[in-house]
């Protein structure tokens, strides 16, 4: 275990010199022996750090079962490069060893022509399974589930159930939880293996059932599965169809991977970066991503926000004569709109997170709007008091101070309400509420804040 830890710490600073020497000398036998006891993730890190030709040779030296474990740890671009350089025999042996959920993820990320090649290499049973998994909607639980679980019958004795587990458990994703089904494969219960081990072998499975279990349908959104894992501290979650037939399970390791992807996706949306068209790899591997991908991911929202910002300029131009008379007003504009944007971003962050955790529902929008009106008003009063001092120092005019303070209060309230409403609006439109990103809220606050400030100034200053 210490050796693996040492390797991980070393590979972060580059490939160890000893391994470099073995690779340069093409001493593949010694290299194979050196890495044979490493974790798959450590070997994947090594392959990511070296030349692709050397990586393919090392990968081929690994036994098929270790190949599949290492392959599932590689990023999608390196996976694709590997597949292009491996023979059909190599690929067939490897992908048949992959877990069904890992295989589905691989098929989703590969180009269509490569996916067809991979599916055709599967055995008839594996091909049918893969196509079934791929038939579920994107981001559905069906895309995560694996059909490799252990199921027993309620009328079996504990002794018979344990024999069944010993016979088929080695191929299961996990045997920590065993599932009880009827003759039509309806899910009846989930039983921890510990309860079976401690039970009387002559008793029936039904005698230790409590029929309390948590399940989810295959077409449900993956975020629903994440919430169930968090709420009930699950290790595995059974997946059923709409009639309650057991189809497969989702394990906690798959949920952790999905949660990481969801958080990365939300992070990109908060920053107004379009990740769907180029994939999420560029966030976590930014130094290796082509410039074209980075450009495509960022240009869409920047152009959109640019045209929105032009509206702000149009508003300012509409009050040109008043601004010419009271030039000092322009010096307050940046702080007013920025404060409104910051207040809006704060409230949006709170609402988006609450929606993601399920502690806030769509029906709560009016209640939260009322609360935010109160909070925004209090924040506006405090910020107004703060800017009043600067207003008097710059303008020496009580009337200008009144304009600035009033505008600050109104802008903070409006910005806060925008931050609350936008996530609900996007959710209502069946869009990710994280789309209500900070740049979008800031730009809207710029437009509305500028209009509010100059309108109040026009009304109060004549």
Provide a quick synopsis of the model.
This protein is mainly alpha-helical and 462 residues long. It has helices spanning 2-11, 17-24, 28-35, 40-49, 52-61, 64-73, 76-85, 88-95, 100-109, 112-121, 124-134, 158-168, 193-198, 222-232, 252-270, 281-284, 291-318, 320-325, 333-357, 365-395, 398-428, 438-461; strands at 151-153, 177-181, 187-192, 216-217, 236-240, 246-251.
Helix and strand topology:
Layout: H1 2-11, H2 17-24, H3 28-35, H4 40-49, H5 52-61, H6 64-73, H7 76-85, H8 88-95, H9 100-109, H10 112-121, H11 124-134, E1 151-153, H12 158-168, E2 177-181, E3 187-192, H13 193-198, E4 216-217, H14 222-232, E5 236-240, E6 246-251, H15 252-270, H16 281-284, H17 291-318, H18 320-325, H19 333-357, H20 365-395, H21 398-428, H22 438-461
Parallel strand pairs: 1-2, 4-5
Antiparallel strand pairs: 2-3, 5-6
What is the first-to-last residue Cα distance?
A: 77 Å
Instruction: Let me know the CATH homologous superfamily of the largest domain.
Output: SLC41 divalent cation transporters, integral membrane domain
Counted beta strands = 6
Low-confidence stretches: 1-10
CATH topology of the largest domain: Tetracycline Repressor, domain 2
Overall pLDDT confidence: 84
**Strand order across the largest sheet:** 1-2-3
Report the biggest beta sheet as strand number plus sense, adding barrel if it closes: 3 strands, mixed
Given the helix and strand composition, which structural class is it?
mainly alpha
- Count of domain modules: 3
Taken as a percent bin, the fraction of beta residues is 5-15%
- Helix-strand pattern, N to C? HHHHHHHHHHHEHEEHEHEEHHHHHHHH
């Amino acid at each position: 275990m210490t050796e693996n830890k040492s390797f991980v710490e070393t590979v972060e600073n580059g490939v160890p010199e000893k391994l470099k020497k073995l690779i340069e000398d093409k001493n593949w036998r010694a290299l194979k022996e050196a890495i044979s006891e490493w974790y798959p993730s450590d070997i994947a890190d090594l392959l990511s750090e070296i030349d692709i030709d050397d990586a393919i040779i090392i990968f081929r030296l690994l036994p098929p079962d270790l190949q599949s474990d290492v392959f599932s740890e590689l990023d999608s671009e390196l996976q694709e490069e590997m597949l292009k350089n491996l023979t059909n025999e190599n690929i067939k042996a490897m992908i048949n060893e992959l877990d069904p959920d890992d295989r589905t993820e691989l098929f989703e990320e590969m180009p269509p022509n490569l996916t067809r090649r991979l599916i055709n290499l599967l055995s008839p049973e594996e091909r049918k399974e893969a196509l079934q998994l791929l038939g579920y909607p994107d981001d559905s639980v069906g895309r995560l589930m694996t059909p490799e679980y252990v199921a027993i019958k309620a009328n079996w004795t504990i002794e018979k159930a344990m024999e069944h587990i010993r016979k088929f458990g080695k191929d299961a994703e996990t045997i920590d939880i065993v599932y009880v089904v009827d003759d039509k494969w309806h899910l009846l219960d989930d039983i921890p293996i510990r309860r079976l081990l401690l039970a009387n072998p002559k008793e029936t499975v039904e005698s230790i059932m409590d029929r309390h279990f948590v399940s989810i349908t295959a077409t449900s959104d993956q975020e629903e599965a994440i919430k169930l894992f968090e709420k009930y501290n699950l290790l595995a979650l059974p997946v059923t169809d709409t009639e309650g037939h057991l189809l497969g399970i989702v394990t906690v390791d798959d949920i952790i991977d999905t949660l990481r992807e969801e958080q990365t996706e939300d992070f990109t949306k908060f920053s107004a970066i379009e990740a769907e068209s180029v994939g999420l790899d560029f966030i976590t591997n930014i130094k290796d991503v082509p410039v074209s991908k980075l450009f495509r991911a960022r240009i869409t929202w920047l152009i959109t926000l640019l045209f929105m910002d032009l509206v702000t300029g149009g508003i300012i131009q509409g009050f040109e004569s008043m601004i010419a008379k009271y030039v000092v007003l322009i010096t307050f504009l940046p702080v007013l709109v920025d404060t409104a944007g910051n207040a809006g971003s704060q409230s949006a962050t709170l609402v988006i997170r609450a929606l993601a955790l399920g502690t806030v529902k769509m029906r709560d929008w009016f209640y939260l709007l009322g609360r935010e009106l109160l909070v925004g008003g209090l924040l506006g009063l405090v910020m107004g008091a703060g800017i009043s001092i600067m207003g008097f120092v710059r303008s020496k005019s009580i009337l200008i101070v009144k304009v600035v303070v009033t505008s600050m209060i109104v802008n903070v309230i409006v910005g806060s309400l925008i931050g609350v409403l936008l996530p609900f609006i996007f959710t209502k439109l069946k869009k990710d509420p994280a789309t209500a990103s900070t740049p979008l809220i800031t730009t809207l606050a710029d437009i509305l804040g500028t209009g509010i400030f100059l309108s109040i100034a026009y009304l109060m200053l004549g």
